[in-house]
Amino acid sequence: MRRSLATQALSVMLIVLLPGIVLFADAGALMHSSGGVNVDGKSAPSSLALFAGDKVSTAAHGVATITAAGSILTLSPGTSLTYGTNTVQMECGRLAVTSLQPGFTAKVSNLLVSPASEDTTYSISHGSGKLMIEVRAGSALVDDGQQKMTLVAGKEMSLPSPESCADPVDAKQEPPARGFHMSKRNIGLLAGAGAGALAAGVVIAERGNKHCVSPDGSPACKCSNTNPNKCQ
């Protein structure tokens, strides 16, 4: 009788928990947000599982952090993008990305930006007729479909953009999204554990100082430091 009751109890628990387990296993990422964030045009709760095709937009004071396997994305106020499997299509605003391994791609305008090394951090700013990509750690590959360029830590690329976007909010003025904080070691554990581990819920906020612009001779890139040696 006791074994039968235990079996019945276990069966009930599985019926209750299995849908949630399957949900998070199928979800591509977990998002934490505050200050006003919409997903597919509807106001999002502070924590939400994201699926491929979900459209995320942050309000004037909204911030969001998206945690996927091996990558952390931080959206500043006024940022809009579409989430996909191992990729995002960014429209406007400012996006910071930390990836512990290659494989994640951010699309913006006609460019594909992806980590070219392990433990890479870069940001994309798109606003007011200007597109800027800055690498803070590691290296990133920028591909426009015709040629590729690798930017290393301390370099940034600035390009004109015909698309109409408002100026992104300065990263120094961004309030962090609310949630659980996570070390890079634990982000790496997520990469090995898969999307199901996202149910734990994590958040990270990007911070850092501006670096030199890549002096590669391109009219789209220039050095922001008066000492040329600082830009090599």
What keywords describe this structure?
Jelly Rolls; alpha+beta; 16 strands; 232 residues; single chain; disordered C terminus; 16-stranded mixed β-sheet; globular; 38% strand
Architecture overview:
The protein is of the alpha+beta class and 232 residues long. It has a single domain (2-224), classed as Jelly Rolls, CATH 2.60.120. Helices cover 15% and strands 38% of the residues. The protein is built from 2 helices and 16 strands. The chain has helices at residues 2-26, 184-193; strands spanning 29-34, 37-39, 42-43, 47-50, 55-58, 63-68, 71-75, 80-84, 87-99, 105-108, 111-115, 120-127, 130-137, 139-143, 148-152, 156-160. It has a 16-stranded mixed beta sheet that branches. β12 (120-127) and β13 (130-137) form a beta hairpin. Residues 16-25 and 171-232 have low confidence and may be disordered.
Q: What's the total number of strands?
A: 16
Q: Provide the residue-averaged pLDDT.
A: 74
The gyration radius over C-alpha positions equals: 20 Å
* Estimated share of beta-strand residues: 35-45%
Integer tally of domains: 1
CATH architecture: Sandwich
Structural category is: alpha+beta
Query: Spans with pLDDT under 50 lasting ≥5 residues?
Result: 16-25, 171-232
Distance between the termini: 76 Å
What portion of residues is helical?
10-25%
CATH class: Mainly Beta
**Helix/strand order:** HEEEEEEEEEEEEEEEEH
CATH topology type: Jelly Rolls
Number of helices: 2
Largest sheet: 16 strands, mixed
Q: Give the CA-based shape.
A: globular
